[in-house]
Specification:
seven-stranded mixed beta sheet, alpha/beta, about 100 residues
Length: about 100
């Protein structure tokens, strides 16, 4: 897994659009200890997903307004992104975060 810190010239929405053009079209979210796709009504455990890359973004006016975007592929071939707060702003449970390392 690669860790990239985006330059100021790329915003979160610009990166999401680029990835959508590359086939990462699913929108994933976090619910309890699972990664979910509400549109498809599917849920994945940590061992059912691969984190291909992740990108960190900092808020323009407040560096503590940080987010992280994970680029994900599931074991059934779905590809997409998951955006979460970074650090103490994260919605991810400790157990899920440890499984995804």
């Amino acid at each position: 897994m690669k860790t990239l810190i985006m330059s100021i010239s790329k915003t979160l929405s610009e990166r999401i659009n680029e990835l959508k053009n590359e086939g990462f079209t699913e929108d994933f979210d976090i619910k309890d200890d699972a990664i979910v796709n509400y549109k498809r009504k599917t849920s994945y455990n940590a061992d059912q997903v691969s984190i291909l890359q992740h990108f960190r973004f900092e808020g323009e006016t407040n560096p503590s307004d940080s987010s992280i975007m994970y680029v994900i592929e599931t074991n059934d071939g779905k590809k997409g992104t998951l955006v979460d707060g970074y650090g103490s702003n994260s919605d991810m449970s400790m157990s899920l975060a440890q499984k995804l390392k």
